[in-house]
């Protein structure tokens, strides 16, 4: 391997909005996170930071007066000319 081509990889502190901190290594220095595994709803099983209340009601209210799609008409299936010719040939 070539010498002196890799970036510095010093110790960095990670700070989360929930107050959790830990040390890791990074080429970018200290990190500041909005959410981590200590406060994320997937890992904790609780919904703390994510508010989804009222989304379904807003969706229903938005599309309540939307016009309904008219039903599609079924296309008539026409016999293929090849089949007609075969039927006539079978009769003769």
Task: Tell me the β content.
Answer: 15-25%
Nearest-integer average pLDDT? 79
How many β-strand stretches? 3
Q: How many helices does DSSP assign?
A: 3
The shape, in one word, is elongated
Low confidence ranges? none
Gap between N and C termini: 86 Å
Order of helices and strands: EEEHHH
Question: How would you explain this protein's 3D organization?
Answer:
This protein is of the alpha+beta class and 92 residues long. Helices cover 26% and strands 15% of the residues. The protein has helices at residues 41-44, 55-63, 81-91, and strands at residues 11-16, 21-25, 31-33. It has a three-stranded mixed beta sheet, with no helix packed on it. A hairpin with a 4-residue loop joins strand 1 (11-16) and strand 2 (21-25). The longest helix is centred in the last third of the chain and has 11 residues, at 81-91. The radius of gyration is 33 Å and the shape is elongated. The model has no long low-confidence stretch (mean pLDDT 79).
Brief account:
The chain has 92 residues and is of the alpha+beta class.
